[in-house]
Design brief:
single chain; 389 residues; alpha/beta; Aspartate Aminotransferase, domain 1; Aspartate Aminotransferase, domain 2; seven-stranded mixed beta sheet; four-stranded mixed beta sheet; 12 helices; globular
Length: 389
């Protein structure tokens, strides 16, 4: 089958045919512990009975109707999601990049409305160095990593500039009346699982607001329980105008969301931004099941408990090849002296799926329902890989 599916992803030569919880099974019947969960998507694990039941029931009713109309499932999920976040509006789409594209358009229109009497020049969006916001042309430019701006895809949209995270001195000279929005991740996933300092984040958000800009928090990877709370920005008290979400939002069904309120509440009007598949009933049924599970007592307690176990276990090894461990909930980055890609391959050979981020980081994003025993089993494989590479 090689060559039929464009291998834009550099995929490994392993084909999975099934999964259960935090385990995957390949075509040869080999079992793997999953520390990737579809890059943070399968938050409730594989073949979760609650999710399967919700999706099956929805399939029997309705999969898609198009946004000329609304569906009962779409309305119900929108109400539940805005209630959980304290926001007022939600625009549903299909991915994190699409959610961020919507946020960019929302910010640009907001800036234009705020400055149209003076030429409509409030257009600049400030994001962070080492950030990642998607692979569309606009979200690539919003990404603060030069490796994502190759000449072959140029020209890129104008109106983006970058600030160094955790640098307080940079805040003072960044925000002015040309800025329409400040866009940031609370933990930079693709950049290397870099934790943004909470005091710095609050100061930067305050400076953006003072300058008249929107605060947009990209929670595509950190949101939906990944960092031990429903959304990292809300737990940090950042009170954003806009939150973007995707990955785990519907447990594996493609979905993204741009959730907004405050100054952004009434910016979009009919026709400003649309998506054929956005908010279809099937995806919303998945979203409702995921959100209901996460709001149950002790769900986030489990996420934080297992995340702490993984971090403390790795640190307890005292291995010289491990230079730093960063973690928030079950979003974990381990900097190593070996090639992360080589360690990733060795782990896969021995039955553990991990991912990489940045230039020196092995990243763990296991299903949020992973058990302690599964986590420890996976860590044994990881330790052996470090020792053998």
């Amino acid at each position: 089958m090689a060559g039929i599916v464009a291998n834009n992803y550099g995929s490994f030569n392993v084909t999975f045919v099934g999964g259960n919880g935090a385990e995957l099974t390949d075509t040869n019947g080999k079992k793997y512990i999953d520390f990737v969960s579809g890059i943070g998507v399968n938050c409730l694990g594989h073949n979760n009975p609650i999710l399967v039941e919700a999706l099956t029931a929805q399939i029997k009713k309705q999969i898609h109707i198009g946004n000329y109309y609304t569906s009962d499932t779409n309305i119900a999920f929108a109400e539940e999601l805005t209630k959980a976040t304290g926001m007022k509006r939600v625009y549903f789409c299909n991915s994190g990049a699409e959610a961020n594209e919507a946020a960019i358009k929302l910010a640009r229109k907001y800036g234009w409305l705020m400055s149209k009497d003076n030429g409509g020049n409030r257009k600049t969006i400030v994001s962070l160095n080492h950030s990642f916001h998607g692979r569309s042309i606009a979200t690539l430019k919003a990404t603060g990593q030069e490796k994502f701006h190759p000449d072959c895809f140029a020209p890129y949209p104008e109106g983006f500039k970058y600030i160094e995270p955790n640098d307080f001195s940079a805040i003072e000279k960044t925000f002015d009346d040309s800025v329409c929005a400040f866009l940031m991740e609370c933990v930079q996933g693709e950049g290397g699982v870099n934790l943004v300092d909470e005091k710095w984040a609050k100061a930067a958000c305050d400076a953006a607001r003072k300058a008249g800009a929107l605060v947009i928090i990209d929670e595509v990877q950190t949101g939906m329980g990944r960092t031990g709370t429903l959304f990292a920005s809300l737990a940090m008290g950042l009170n954003p105008d806009v939150i973007t979400a995707a990955k785990g939002i519907a447990g594996g069904v493609p979905m993204g969301a741009c959730i907004f309120g405050g100054k952004a509440e009434d910016v979009f009007v009919a026709g400003d931004h649309q998506s054929t598949f956005g908010g279809n009933p099937l995806a919303c049924a998945g979203g409702r099941a995921v959100l209901a599970e996460m709001l149950k007592p002790a769900f986030f307690e489990h996420v934080n408990k297992v995340g702490k176990l993984i971090k403390e276990t790795v640190l307890s090894w005292n291995m010289k090849c491990i230079t730093e461990v960063r973690a928030k909930g079950l979003m974990i980055g381990i900097d190593i002296t070996q090639s992360p890609g080589d360690v990733q391959k060795k782990c896969l050979e021995n039955g553990l799926c991990v991912s990489t981020a940045g230039t020196k980081t092995v990243r763990f994003l296991p299903p949020l329902i992973i058990t302690e025993s599964q986590a420890l089993e996976g860590l044994k494989i990881f330790k052996a890989a470090l020792e053998s590479v």
